[in-house]
Automatic annotation (TrEMBL):
<dbReference type="GO" id="GO:0006298">
    <property type="term" value="P:mismatch repair"/>
</dbReference>
<protein>
    <recommendedName>
        <fullName>Endonuclease MutS2</fullName>
        <ecNumber>3.1.-.-</ecNumber>
        <ecNumber>3.6.4.-</ecNumber>
    </recommendedName>
</protein>
<keyword id="KW-0175">Coiled coil</keyword>
<dbReference type="InterPro" id="IPR002625">
    <property type="entry name" value="Smr_dom"/>
</dbReference>
<comment type="function">
    <text>Endonuclease that is involved in the suppression of homologous recombination and thus may have a key role in the control of bacterial genetic diversity.</text>
</comment>
<feature type="coiled-coil region">
    <location>
        <begin position="600"/>
        <end position="627"/>
    </location>
</feature>
<keyword id="KW-0255">Endonuclease</keyword>
<dbReference type="InterPro" id="IPR036187">
    <property type="entry name" value="DNA_mismatch_repair_MutS_sf"/>
</dbReference>
<dbReference type="GO" id="GO:0045910">
    <property type="term" value="P:negative regulation of DNA recombination"/>
</dbReference>
<dbReference type="GO" id="GO:0030983">
    <property type="term" value="F:mismatched DNA binding"/>
</dbReference>
<dbReference type="InterPro" id="IPR000432">
    <property type="entry name" value="DNA_mismatch_repair_MutS_C"/>
</dbReference>
<dbReference type="InterPro" id="IPR007696">
    <property type="entry name" value="DNA_mismatch_repair_MutS_core"/>
</dbReference>
<keyword id="KW-0238">DNA-binding</keyword>
<dbReference type="GO" id="GO:0004519">
    <property type="term" value="F:endonuclease activity"/>
</dbReference>
<dbReference type="GO" id="GO:0019843">
    <property type="term" value="F:rRNA binding"/>
</dbReference>
<dbReference type="InterPro" id="IPR036063">
    <property type="entry name" value="Smr_dom_sf"/>
</dbReference>
<dbReference type="InterPro" id="IPR005747">
    <property type="entry name" value="MutS2"/>
</dbReference>
């Protein structure tokens, strides 16, 4: 358990109550309120993973089944006792527990839910049970209002029927007895009623001597009495006997149902705890969604911390506007000293950092941005606020010293120390000396320390002690109002005299006060004022540069878009020209065939020589057509490569930060990351392995070892595999004798079949098998139409039984 005093100062219990309000049940909310910071990093990371899985389920289309969880902790513990009987209400709650367990179990086993997400909750899923027969048995025996139904047993049904009949007869008897009374003995505004478990009739006290019987009660004034007359006593006894018999049968039914549950008491307890744990995860997941909490990375305190877009959880819960802050402490930076004027937000910053750490180590998401990294501390110590005590005779300064003494005794290198207004409450010189000594001790101990101060002397500590770094919360010097923006590396000013001047204190008093300031503090104030002015000017200049860069980027994007469109038009024109040329060549092939046929008819004995010339002519035309086809494909490949280069350039623009943009904490490079290699003109590559400060990177077909500092993470996708094409005539060692067009659309068949015919003709093949499948016959019809029009095809037929039958067309070539 961490330091309870510090958790109280940070208002940790209040934050737990806020998160618990998101639970769906009382037991789930109670489970959230019992959470406490833990030091086990493995548990912390696993718990955040479980919350993340629950968050994904809650945000999914299926949502999360918010089933009721009854308050059954104590009854479940008593269920272990042999012979114990649950009440009807407890049995009804037990049925609710079983039903909720079954429904949540079914929801998690829904095949539509991602198994990788559900796997994080598998331990709870394994504890959920499905006892439908017991659930139904309890539902049949006990109604929703917690009473045992008449149909719970035949005996109970009979007893209650007889009881209703006996009560009806008794009431009618009493009404007749009331009617026999003299009018001045009757009570007109009352009727037959029940007193002390017996049915009675009201009457005036004076009628007691005339009626007799047993008086069971009287009115407040004593004027009216409630009497059971002698004639009704026997009927009342019968009613009482039936009531006792009913009670015994009800107890028997409850005992029987409890005995059916008893063998499952361990499973019921496990299911109850699983449902409570899931509800606690549900509450945290809802909070994470509402507060826009990003996933965290955890580390050791020696590795520093990085909070991006951090917000104070309690301020956020109130719905008030919250200014986020960014804070990074590197490994060698152990102490952050925050200075600045009052109401600037220093104490809020201090508490925010402590509360974020405590919540995160309790398994609760915290309102920070992506890439945030928090250490796992072994304890949190805080000296914040005025803790003076009249009873303990402690002044404010003494109370601070008491807390600081405890911190110095207990803080370790793994601890987080928060100190507000260090050195205040006593003489400034002595306070600064004591505060400097305390900070130096904690810094040399390597404890992560964040302190606030107004003392100018302490601001110089960063120049004297390694590991101490200054920071301030920005203050608008013109409006004299805080901006709550954290500036690391720059100490803050108090602005006390500036505020006094703004509040119109006499000018001569302010001037004399300025003269009384020590020269060192006066010079430091001037220097800080100059730094703030320069920082403000730089901020304005950065904004102007950012706007100009955005304009340049927009212009560059427009020019690039126009250039790409021009290139695309050029490629389309070239592709069309190539396709037209190929078409003309194929037409010329037909004319050549016809001319050869005419000459062959007249050639006679020169037919053999003519045939060889014809083959040469065919081959020349086919090669020219194939060359045009390859040229079209080359145009398409150039377009693909140009598209990849454009994507890489865009990815580099995204990955490369603009000048003046603050760098966020990034994950170290790891195996498989895409990077740009600075030593190779920012060529894109992939990390094979990382060793110390060097990495092995593959760039294309080259593997190099380069320093990590020369690599830049790239979000560009890996370049697609580019098919290599060759221009010209390539000898085919093993020409294909068939082409398979199954799975293609009708409009995609033409190119495949034409290329196959080209290759078959160049190889002097006599047949080509075209596999199109049987299917609807659309592909077969299209293949037939193409073969009819192609002059290179002497004829075609469907395949024989051993060639594929109607699923294959065999083309016979000339």
């Amino acid at each position: 358990m961490m330091n309870a005093h510090a958790l109280g100062i940070l208002e940790f219990p209040r934050m737990l109550a806020h998160v618990a309000g998101r639970a769906n049940s009382g037991p789930g909310a109670a489970a959230v309120r019992t959470l406490a910071p833990r030091r086990d990093r493995e548990w912390i990371e696993a718990e955040h993973a479980r919350v993340g899985a629950m968050r994904a389920l809650v945000a999914s289309e299926l949502g999360w089944p918010t089933e009721p969880i009854p308050e059954l902790g104590e009854p479940l513990r008593r269920l272990r006792i042999e012979g114990l009987t649950w009440t009807a209400l407890e049995l009804l709650q037990g049925a609710t527990l079983i039903r909720s367990s079954r429904r949540v179990r079914d929801a998690l086993r829904d095949p539509r839910r991602p198994r990788i997400t559900v796997a994080y909750l598998q331990a709870y899923l394994d504890q959920l049970i499905d006892l439908r027969p017991l659930e139904d048995a309890i539902g049949r025996a006990i109604s929703d209002d917690g009473t045992v139904r008449d149909d719970a047993s035949p005996a109970l049904r009979r007893v209650r029927r007889e009881l209703r009949q006996a009560e009806g007869e008794l009431v009618r008897l009493l009404e007749r007895e009331m009617a026999k009374l003299e009018s001045h003995h009757q009570v007109s505004d009352l009727s037959v009623t029940m007193r002390n478990g017996r049915w009675v009739m009201p009457m005036r006290r004076e009628a007691r001597g005339y009626v007799g019987g047993i008086v069971h009660d009287s009115s407040g004034t004593g004027a009216t009495i409630f009497v059971e007359p002698p004639a009704a006593v026997e009927f009342g006894n019968r009613v009482r006997e039936l009531e006792i018999e009913e009670l015994r049968e009800v107890e028997r039914v409850l005992r029987e149902l409890t005995e059916q549950l008893h063998p499952y008491h361990d499973q019921l307890i496990a299911a109850f705890h699983a449902l409570v744990a899931l509800d606690a995860l549900y509450a945290r997941a809802r909070y994470a969604i509402e507060a826009s909490c990003a996933p965290l990375t955890f580390c050791a305190p020696a590795e520093g911390l990085a909070i991006v877009d951090g917000r104070h959880p309690l301020l956020l819960s109130r719905g008030t506007p919250v200014v986020p802050f960014d804070l990074t402490l590197f490994e060698q930076e152990r102490t952050l000293l925050v200075s600045g004027p009052n109401t600037g937000g220093k104490t809020v910053l201090l508490k925010a950092i402590g509360l974020l750490s405590a919540l995160a180590q309790s398994g609760i998401p915290v309102p920070v941005g992506a890439t945030s990294r928090l250490p796992v501390f072994d304890d949190v110590f805080a000296d914040v606020g005025d803790e003076q005590s009249i009873e303990a005779s402690l002044s404010t300064f003494s109370a601070h010293l008491k807390n600081l003494a405890e911190i110095l005794r207990s803080a370790t290198p793994e601890s987080l120390v928060l100190i507000d207004e260090l050195g205040s409450g006593t003489d400034p010189a002595e306070g600064a000396a004591l505060g400097g000594s305390i900070l130096e001790t904690l810094t040399r101990r390597s404890a992560t320390t964040i302190a606030t101060t107004h003392l100018g002397q302490l601001k110089l500590l960063a120049t004297e002690v390694e590991g101490v770094v200054n920071a301030s919360l920005q203050f608008d010097a013109v409006q004299l109002a805080p901006t709550y923006r954290l500036l690391k590396g720059i100490p803050g000013r108090s602005y006390g005299l500036s505020i006094a001047r703004r509040l119109q204190l006499p000018e001569d008093i302010i001037v004399r006060a300025e003269e009384r300031l020590p020269h060192g503090e006066r010079d430091l104030a001037v220097l800080l004022s100059d730094v703030e002015a320069r920082e403000g000017a730089l901020g304005v200049r950065e904004q102007v540069m950012d706007r100009e860069q955005e304009k340049l980027r927009a212009r560059l994007a427009t020019v690039t878009d126009r250039e790409l469109k021009v290139r695309e038009r050029e490629r389309e024109a070239e592709k069309s020209a190539r396709q037209e040329a190929r078409k003309y060549l194929l037409d010329a092939r037909g004319q050549v065939e016809r001319a050869i046929a005419e000459i062959r008819a007249k050639a006679g004995e020169q037919a053999e020589a003519l045939e060889e010339s014809a083959r040469a002519a065919r081959r020349a035309v086919e090669e020219a057509a194939a060359a045009q086809g390859l040229a079209v494909e080359a145009v398409q490949q150039r377009a693909a490569r140009e598209k990849v280069r454009t994507q890489v350039r865009e990815a580099v623009d995204v990955a490369t930060p603009r000048p003046g943009t603050p760098q966020k904490a990034q994950q170290p490079l790891a195996e498989g990351d895409r990077v740009l290699v600075g030593t190779l003109d920012n060529k894109s590559g992939q990390v094979l392995s990382v060793r110390g400060k060097e990495a092995r990177v593959v760039v294309g077909s080259l593997t190099v070892t380069v320093p990590l500092s020369t690599l830049t993470r790239s979000s560009a996708p890996p370049p697609p595999a580019v098919k290599v094409t060759y221009a010209g005539s390539i000898p085919e060692a093993d020409p294909l004798r068939e082409v398979d067009v199954r799975g293609l659309r009708v409009d995609e068949v033409d190119d495949q079949v034409l290329q196959a015919l080209d290759a078959a003709v160049r190889s002097d093949m006599r047949e080509l098998r075209i596999i199109h499948g049987k299917g609807t016959g659309a592909l077969r019809s299209r293949v037939g139409e193409m073969l009819k029009k192609d002059t290179r095809v002497a004829g075609f037929r469907l395949g024989a039984w051993n060639e594929g039958g109607a699923g294959v067309t065999v083309a016979e070539l000339t």
